[in-house]
Amino acid sequence: MANDMAKPILVTGSHRSGTTWVGKMISACPSVVYVHEPFSPETYRIYPGRCGAKFIYWNTYVTDENEAAFYKHIENTLGFRYNLGAQFNANRNFVDFKRTLKEYCIYWGYRSRNLVPLMKDPLAIFSAGWLAKKFDMNVLVLVRHPAAFVTSLKRLNWDYDFYELLQQPLLIRDYLYPFEQEITEYAALDNEIIDRAALLWKMIYSVVLKYQKYHPDWIYLRYEDLAGNPIPCFEYLFNRFGLEFSDSVKATIQDYTSPSNPIDAPEGDWSLRKRNSQANVGSWKNKLTKDEIIRIKAHVEEVSKEFYADEDWE
After folding, report:
1. Coarse DSSP helix, strand, coil percentages of the chain, rounded to the nearest 5 percent
2. Which PANTHER family match (predicted)?
C-alpha cells in the first residue's frame, strides 16, 4: 500500500521521452492510478468525464494569471471525481453509455480507496510549476537525448504547430522569450521535420533547466539512465514517492524491459510495448545519418550540453 503521505505524481518531459512507459511502470503499484494526459485537447473532446478542462493548445501554459478555466477541472481529475453529465453529452451510442457508467463506478472506487493519482502528461511540461504548487505534486521530469527525440518524431512524421506558442503570450513572456524570433519563423515556414523537432526539444529543455534551478526538490532523470538500469532506478523512484517496490512490481518492470523483447515498436505504432530497453537507448544512431546527427547537435547544443556530453553523441 502507499505511504499515508504519498502525494499525487506528475510524470512529464518532452513527448517521446518515455513518460508513458515510466507512468505505467509506477502505476503497477496497486495504490497508484495512471491518469492519461488531461492536458490533451483530445481528452476534453472524447473523455470530458475524466477531465473537463478545455485545452485548445497542445502545450498549454497554466499559471496563476489564467488558472480560472482549469483549476477546478484538474482538481476533480486528481480527486477522481468523474463528470458523468459531461461524458453523457459527449457519447454517441449505447456502447459509449455503458462504458461511461463503468468508468464512473471505477472512479468512485479509486476515490473511496484514496488511491494515488499519477498524471502522465508531457503536454503539461510548461505547467509543471503550477501543478506542483497548486496540488502539492511529486514531479518527475524525464529527459531524452535530442537525437532520439528527433528520430522518434521523424519516424512517426509528427510535426508541431509553432503558431500555438505565439498564441500564448504568458508562455513567451515567462519562458520562451529567447526563442520568439525562431518560433515566429518556424510558424511561417515549412522547415524539415529534423529542424522543427530540434527546436522543440531545445525550447522544452531550456525550461527544464530553469526548473532545475527553482525546483531542486523535483526528480530529473535521463531516459537513457532509466532504460539502461531500470530496476535500481525504479526502486529509487518508488522510495522517493513513498510507494512499495514489491516483487510483483519488479517482475512487471523486468517483463517490459527484458533483453528478449524487440528493440523498437512496429512501424507507425507509438503505444506502450515491451522493449529491450538497453538496446533501445542507442537505436537512433542507426536511423540518422552522420550529417543529420551533426545538424541536430549544432541546433540544440547550447541546451543539450547541460544534459549530454560529447561522447553521448557518438
Report:
1. 55, 10, 35
2. CARBOHYDRATE SULFOTRANSFERASE (PTHR10704), LD35051P-RELATED (PTHR10704:SF44)
Of 133 and 277, the structure prediction assigns the larger pLDDT to 133
Grid coordinates standing for 229?
538500469
- In this predicted structure, the answer to whether residue 126 has a pLDDT above a threshold of 60 is yes
- The answer to pTM > 0.90 is yes
Euclidean distance between CA atoms 282 and 8, whole angstroms: 32
Which residues, in sequence order, are bridge partners of residue 219? 140
Please give the Cα distance from 208 to 200 (Å, whole number). Answer: 13
For 299-314, what is the mean pLDDT?
Answer: 97
How many C-beta neighbours within 10 Å does residue 54 have?
14
| 1-144+215-247: CATH class | alpha beta
Give the ranges where the chain is alpha helix by DSSP (H).
19-26, 41-46, 71-78, 84-90, 94-112, 128-135, 146-156, 163-166, 169-171, 180-188, 193-214, 223-228, 230-241, 247-257, 277-280, 290-304
Q: For all residues of the chain together, what is the average pLDDT? A: 93
Cβ atoms of 3 and 140 within 8 Å: the answer is: no
Q: Is the pLDDT of residue 294 over 90?
A: yes
Grid cell for residue 80: 477522481
Residue 135 scores a pLDDT above 60: yes
- Residue 11 near residue 18, CB atoms below 8 Å: no
Q: How many residues does the chain have?
A: 314
Least confident of 14-28, 123-137, 235-249, 265-279: 265-279
